[in-house]
Amino acid sequence: MSGELTDAIKLLSVASVADYLAARGVLPGSDGVLARELGGGVSNVVISAHHGDQRVVVKQALPRLRVHDEWLAKRERALNEGEALRLAAEITPGSVPRVLDVDGELCALTIEEAPETEVPWKERLLAGDSDPAVAQRLGQVLGAWHAATFRREDVAQAFGDLEAFDQLRVDPYYRTVARRRSQLAAPIDAYVARMEATHVCLVHGDYSPKNVLVGEGVWVLDFEVAHFGDPAFDLAFMLSHLFLKRVHLSQRDGSLEGCARAFLGAYRDTVPRELQPDTAYVLGHVGCLIAARVDGKSPVEYLSEDGRRVARALGESLLISPPATLDEALLAVAQAAL
What we know:
five-stranded antiparallel beta sheet; three-stranded antiparallel beta sheet; alpha+beta; 13 helices; 338 residues; globular
């Protein structure tokens, strides 16, 4: 990470987090705090801290993400995440962690930590455990957020800043692919234009298996690019991850297909018809996002070289000629994964 970007920024660490949490009033004191840095993220310093029965996680936004390509993003996204978590908790209690503190000066967010029994859904999926009931619940939760914020002026004003979404999603996923694969630029630009012109509900912006914890219930994390925008993006983001895992695992039992159907079906059963994006439009976004996980700034880490080849072709096909139905798309994925 560039020293020029961090010289003037006080970054939290395992060594300093106990004093920080005590000073912020989150913990009663700094003695006896057990802290460790959590991995898996590229956009934040993430530290777990335990003090007796209290278990919290501190997230501090980085100005430059930990990836090979230069990838900058505004640090105030941490404050946006705190507000989005509070709103989501009002709509679907128990589906997101509680917000304990928001630090505007250090751009840091402290939330309750999940029980140790909760594990990322991504891990379960990659291990071959594809439970449609989890996908169904995620469709219901997402649908509840979209429906409850549909055309709400207060939400539009609170989450009208799309800069972080552009920096962390539109540019690295869409525009980067358009630059690197010029033959796809025209359709990608068309999807971006339509998405940027659509502002109808709260959009999570990172709705994927890595940000879902499953155990006794379902917890959704990472709202840092939440904004008032196009609901199709959230649907496409989750479906693109399920499609990519189908390519990687080559499962022939239909379980991942079942997850995709359960997710989209539960979503459509939850939101009013006037809010539901056209399926072909969603699948076109899926195609672009799949292409981005091969040729964008954040390539998926689990695909083999052959898997990358398959995903590249699948993404291009869905982007240029999106099917009218999810079943048609799932058939294309299954055939590509053979």
